[in-house]
Amino acid sequence: MIRAAIWDVDGTLVDTAEIHFAAWQAFAAAHGFAFTRADFAATFGKRNPEIVRQLFDHDADDARCAEWGEEKERLYRDATDRAGVTLLPGVGALVEGLAAAGWLQGLGSSAPRANLDLILRHTGTAGRFTAVVSGDDVTRGKPDPEVFLKAAALLGVEPARCVVFEDAPSGVAAAKAAGMACVGVTFVGHHPPERLRDAGAELVVPSLDAVTLEVVEGLLR
């Protein structure tokens, strides 16, 4: 039976959190706002329209959200292109192991598609992900399950045959709401392991170095 792995990106596949933070700070300063570490922690993983309305303009219309979101993302992409990005420990081996075992794989992220394309290009992994669902493709961000359900549909795999890899409680909650198993990863340290467990992750690990193909397959038995 076909199985699928659906990957969150930032904090799970790669770590560009500091580049995101610097981009939001630069955007905020240019518009006369403050942007703190607490603001970043409270909004990380959300879609840009949600962040703009939560922190900068509660009444922003869709056009303003799109304009400001794209301004920030240009800052992020320019900085990421300069700095480069690599896969987090254990990711490459697990992606290759899943592919060799016949698993389909996709991405389910709140980030804009242009950001995901940039990361796939830098990491050389585009050929491993049959489905890519970005924040541009959904109307509701995590913890709503829309992003993961769309990825599963594109892959042609039932949600119950999918395993999600996530680093955030909202992402874990989205996976569970979609009816999928979930591995929580704490490597980047954004959230303590107990928060991922409380959100419903069947397995929480400090790094994907600790996760074998057999462990992932066991989550679907």
Can you tell me about this structure?
The protein is α/β, with parallel strands linked by helices. Helix 1 (17-30) crosses helix 4. The protein has helices spanning 17-30, 37-43, 48-55, 62-83, 91-100, 113-123, 146-155, 169-177, 193-199, 213-218, and strands spanning 4-7, 104-108, 131-133, 162-166, 181-185, 203-205. The protein is globular. The longest helix is centred in the N-terminal third of the chain and has 22 residues, at 62-83. The chain has two domains: 4-15 and 85-218, 3-Layer(aba) Sandwich (Rossmann fold); 17-83, DNA polymerase, domain 1 (Orthogonal Bundle). The mean pLDDT is 95.
In short:
The chain has two domains: 4-15 and 85-218, Rossmann fold, CATH 3.40.50; 17-83, DNA polymerase, domain 1 (Orthogonal Bundle).
Strand content: 5-15%
Uncertain runs: none
Number of domains: 2
User: What's the total number of strands?
Assistant: 6
CATH class of the largest domain equals: Alpha Beta
What's the CATH topology label of the largest domain? Rossmann fold
Organism: Urbifossiella limnaea
InterPro entries: B-phosphoglucomutase_hydrolase, HAD-like_sf, HAD-like_SPP, HAD-SF_hydro_IA, HAD_sf, PGP-like_dom2
Pfam family, one: Hydrolase
GO molecular function, one term: sugar-phosphatase activity
